[in-house]
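Colleagues,

For the teaching module next term, I've prepared a clean inverse folding example: a structure given as tokens, and then the sequence designed for it. I'd like students to try predicting residues themselves before seeing the answer, so please don't circulate the second half yet.
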């Protein structure tokens, strides 16, 4: 009897865990901390400038798990919860998003159109989003952002590789979500199920306001 109850409990846990994975949505993503596929994106926002412009900067790196098998990257996606208006606030659009890396890169940048973009790590009910994606994350002869396998991660190990993503926007910040999707497994033609995720500052739909250039009445109208 005890064994039967234990088996039933395990089935409930397994079914519940599988359902949680199947129903992954942007608002419920959490870091997975998978050994060999554990990333961090730290964000910083400066501004607004006198012209009402914010500068968004992201530092993107992989955790150093020592001697382990590191997994390849397919792309990086950053979601703007406010949607299309927040995406349109990026100065110069996709051309205004730059990414510089110590090694490797994500050279192709995509912004969602009127209907947004698809993120395969998400459930089909909440897969589409507005924001940007960086594709083709790779490094010649190795894995993207491969650390020095000494179990000390950037920024504590300044020799570990990292990337910096920057753009400017006329919209103030709010919390958004990032997802890093795995590429093909070693020796596998299919797409990897690996992903990692977290939160960063992204533009919202509210423009920057400089109190020195507008009246208090216009500010109240803008934020009403």
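(Answer key — instructors only)
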């Amino acid at each position: 009897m005890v064994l039967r109850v234990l088996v039933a409990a395990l089935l409930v846990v397994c079914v519940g865990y599988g359902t949680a994975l199947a129903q992954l949505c942007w608002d419920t993503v959490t870091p997975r901390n998978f050994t060999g596929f554990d990333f961090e994106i730290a964000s910083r926002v400066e501004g607004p400038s006198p012209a009402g412009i914010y500068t968004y900067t992201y530092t993107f790196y992989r955790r150093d798990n020592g001697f382990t098998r590191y997994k390849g990257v397919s792309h990086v996606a950053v979601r703007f919860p406010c949607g299309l208006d927040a995406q349109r606030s990026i100065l110069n659009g996709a051309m205004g998003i730059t990414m510089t890396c110590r090694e490797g890169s994500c050279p192709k940048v995509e912004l969602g159109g009127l209907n947004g973009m698809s993120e395969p790590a998400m459930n089909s009910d909440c897969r589409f989003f507005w924001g940007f994606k960086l594709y083709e994350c790779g490094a010649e002869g190795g894995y993207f952002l491969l650390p020095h396998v000494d179990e000390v991660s950037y920024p504590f190990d300044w020799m570990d590789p990292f990337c910096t993503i920057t753009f400017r926007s006329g919209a103030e910040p709010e919390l958004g979500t990032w997802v890093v999707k795995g590429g093909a497994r070693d020796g596998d033609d299919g797409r990897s199920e690996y992903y990692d995720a977290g939160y960063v500052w992204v533009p919202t739909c509210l423009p920057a306001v400089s109190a020195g250039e507008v009246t208090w009445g216009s500010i109240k109208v803008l934020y009403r």
